[in-house]
Specification:
Elements: H1 3-26, H2 36-43, H3 47-53, H4 57-82, H5 86-99, H6 101-110, H7 115-128, H8 141-164, H9 171-181, H10 183-186, H11 199-205
Helix pairs in contact: 1-2, 4-5, 4-7, 5-9, 6-8
Length: 207
């Protein structure tokens, strides 16, 4: 496929995505109520063009979700690898969600419970599962996973409320909320590959 055809393919995909979100935003329709016909009319394309890009309307959201999840995870891991402290990681995550708050407001309130946050969490699990659970005081890997799932769903509920309210608090204020209320859960992320958690890692996580 040549460059012109590539560009045309991408342009059509973007028109379809914009059409779906325009219907969600402006007509306040639930995702389950949007038809391929509506999307095609809004995007000014035919049905064959739609099906050349997506299987159905939920597939449009799923593809956007995957893209957003990759960006969300990358923003978190970049800070994590710098070892600048866990709060810097969450600040990057909250800043990313704030930047794309329109998407997250729709997704967290109209689709699956954890949405793109859950996809990003699954990607982070590959990194987290390399960590020795005993370094964080857990009795088993299962206990560490339970703690992680508990934190994920609490975080998702907090973010859903945040974006629904228009992101009135700053990313820094959300970080302070986590620091105050979720100290035990944040232990899950306190590590240095060559060092057990201790005063230095605790001090670093509070930066």
């Amino acid at each position: 496929m040549n460059t012109k055809e590539n560009r045309r393919y991408r342009d059509t995909s973007e028109r379809i995505v914009r059409a779906v979100y325009d219907i969600l935003l402006n007509e306040k329709k639930p995702l389950s109520g949007i038809t391929v016909r509506e999307v095609c009319e809004r995007a000014q394309i035919n049905r064959s063009s739609f099906y050349a890009h997506f299987q159905d309307v939920p597939d449009v959201i799923e593809q956007v979700e995957k893209s957003m999840a990759m960006g969300l995870t990358e923003s978190f891991l970049q800070e994590l690898q710098k070892k600048t402290g866990i709060m810097a990681c969450f600040k990057a995550l909250f800043t990313y969600i704030q930047e794309y708050s329109e998407f997250y407001n729709i997704y967290l309130n109209q689709t699956r419970n954890v949405g793109a946050i859950g996809v990003a969490w699954d990607l982070l699990k590959d990194y987290i599962e390399q960590i020795d659970y005993r370094k964080f005081g857990f009795c088993s890997e299962k206990e560490m996973r339970y703690q992680g799932d508990f934190f994920l769903h609490g975080l998702t509920a907090m973010l859903r409320r945040w974006v629904s309210d228009g992101c009135k608090e700053t990313p820094e204020e959300l970080c302070e909320f986590l620091r105050h209320h979720y100290q035990m859960d944040l232990n899950l992320f306190r590590w240095d590959r060559n060092q057990k958690p201790g005063p230095e890692t605790d001090q670093q996580s509070n930066q």
